[in-house]
Amino acid sequence: MWGADFVFPRTKQVLPGSQRKTQHLPPKEHFVAPKPSVIHVYKDYPPVLGGIEKHIHTLARHQVHRGWDVTVLVTNPAAFPHGLQTQITTEEGIRVIRSGRLFTVASTPISPSQALYQRRLPADVVHLHFPYPPGEVVNHWFGRGNVTVLTYHSDVVRQRGILRAYAPLLRRILRGVHAIIATNPVYPRTSPFLSQVLDLVHIIPLGVDLDPFLQVDPRAARELRESLGKRWVHAPLALFVGKLRYYKGVDILLQALTRVPPLHLWVVGTGPMADAWQRLARRLGLTDRVHFWGEVPESRLPLYYRAADFFVLPATSRAEAFGLVQVEAMATGLPVISTEVGTGTSFVNLHGQTGWVIPPSDPDALAQALRFFMEHPEERQRMGQAARERALREFRAERMAERTLALYERLTSNE
Question: Could you tell me where the DSSP H helices lie in 93-190?
Fold first, then answer.
């Protein structure tokens, strides 16, 4: 593909008779090949918090570092009327287009201007991030990418009525892309849609920039505990980090906590269930042992992991498809308690090796796991070390980016 930066190499022009002379064009070293290009399509992007948003940001930054021209095409999250405007910025070398959002239906932004950008912007690769039906449908009908890759982050779990209407087209969309990335080997076998297109599926686990979690000042972590009062300094401490959505299972965690009296809990994150779960904590008499931190700056998040004794992700449904926060906790050296919901959560956290995997929505089973990790510091240390080693071996962002770009290059070379 020729781009605006294409420059012809040095050539000679032969003229008749005495007019014959050599014409020199710019030297060979001035030749600039066009960068390969990728457009990521989804609904949101940081500073909006979320696992998919964080993944796109991480992947895009590493692709820029490897010489790709990267565009992220999302919608403007600002409140009305400011959200109607389209904003185009360059962030860390990434062109970010936040197209005007008219309104939101069932957690899905409706943005005609995003659709127009999808129809107008050519790219070597269009990378869709599912589930986001508007982006998938517009690309299927009008997309201009030479190659389409789709990362299947999660089944549509809650909006079942919408899924029934969307399912026939979704099957055509999945069959029509060049490749589908699944983030773990469990999900394709258990997903009603991925299981029908296994020939297109490539397994590329999500990755995290682990360096901030590998070297955390223990004194700063201790000071964080002390900031809440003396009783927090020596108390056994469990940690939850994540968006406070219905499927995260914090209500189950609070119920389990009533069965393990000495244990304290930090909840980091905001979301639609925040008020309800804070009211539940008060109703259960847990206000002295549970602290809701709300939203925490990304730069300070490693301190919260370092301050805790172990990590809990008590998900209750398949909507928790991977659990990137588990990787962050593991990199900090924390063992993990997670639930078996038939997704990548139990691919990341290996039962008996890096933590425990228990049944979902079971306060008694969760209380048993909490009590075990509270009472067995030597097992916490052993599993925490194994967790750190697994995070470093399998879930580095660099490895994820290398695997993704290798897939892009195989696909584009076949076009």
Answer: 112-120, 133-142, 160-176, 187-190
Angle between helical axes of 363-375 and 377-394 (0-180°, round to 10): 100
- CB-neighbour burial class of residue 238 (10 A; exposed 0-12, middle 13-18, buried 19+): buried
Tell the burial category of 70 from Cβ atoms under 10 Å away from its Cβ (0-12, 13-18, 19+): buried
Greatest alpha-carbon span in the chain: 101
| Domain 211-394 CATH assignment equals 3.20.20.70 | no
pLDDT digits (tens, 9 = 90+) for 15-44: 344 444 444 545 555 555 689 999 999 999
Pairing of strands 145-152, 103-105: unpaired
Range 52-56, long-range pairs (CB < 8 A, 24+ positions): 52/129, 52/153, 54/324, 55/129, 55/151, 55/153, 55/206, 55/324, 56/129
User: How many other C-beta atoms are found inside a 10 Å radius of the C-beta of residue 322?
Assistant: 25
Q: What would the two tokens of residue 209 be?
A: 């920039």
Radius of gyration in angstroms for the set of CA atoms belonging to the chain, rounded to a whole number: 25
- What's the gap between Cα 20 and its chain centre? 63
Which of 405, 364, 413, 415 lies closest to 181, judged by CA? 405
The pLDDT of residue 288 is 95
DSSP conformational letter for 349: S
- Give the model's pLDDT for residue 14: 35
Structure tokens given for 177: 């892309």
> Taking Cα atoms as reference points, which of 407, 409, 26 lies closest to residue 204?
407
Helices 133-142, 160-176: crossing angle, 10 deg rounding: 30
Q: What is the rounded distance in angstroms from the CA atom of residue 73 to the CA atom of residue 135?
A: 9
Where in the sequence of the chain do the CATH 3.40.50.2000 domains occur? 32-207+397-413, 211-394
146 by Cβ neighbours in 10 Å (0-12 / 13-18 / 19+) ranks as: middle
Segments of the chain with pLDDT less than 70: 1-33, 415
Element (H, E) at 209: none
| Tokens, residue 107 | 């957690």
**Where does 32-207+397-413 sit in CATH, by number?**
3.40.50.2000
Block residue for tokens 């490897």: 66
